[in-house]
């Protein structure tokens, strides 16, 4: 009976199992993170993660969603390469703008007590640029 149920709902089982695995990995990583790092290091980690998520969700994600909604239409019309090049250019501009905002945040919020400026900006750049695959 279970085999028959799984066969009919294979996609749901795969998605559910994947989400369960994702949550399990997240819980394990938090446990490892908090047991290996000090409280201040965990705070610095979450600070960097929050800054990356701010830029990603506010500047890069909307452009990617727009591209994803229209990619099939551009492929049928033969304009996919132009759209892809435009997407890459817009992402690069958004990343450079994010670096500028990150620099201002670094100065405004006195992050120099936690990070070196060049390392901070390089981390922001590499994290945002790595999403351009």
Q: Would you kindly provide a written description of the structure presented here, covering whatever features stand out?
A:
Helices cover 86% and strands 0% of the residues. The longest helix has 39 residues, at 39-77. The mean pLDDT is 91. With 133 residues, it is mainly alpha-helical. The chain has helices at residues 2-8, 10-36, 39-77, 80-108, 117-129.
Q: Main traits of this protein?
A:
flat, 133 residues, mainly alpha, 5 helices, 0% strand, single chain
Q: Topology of this structure?
A:
Elements: H1 2-8, H2 10-36, H3 39-77, H4 80-108, H5 117-129
Quick structural gist:
The protein is 86% helix and 0% strand. With 133 residues, the chain is mainly α.
Number of helices: 5
Instruction: Give Rg in angstroms.
Output: 20 Å
Largest sheet: none
Helical content class: over 70%
Which structural class do the helices and strands define? mainly alpha
Count of DSSP strands: 0
Shape: flat
Gap between N and C termini, in Å?
A: 42 Å
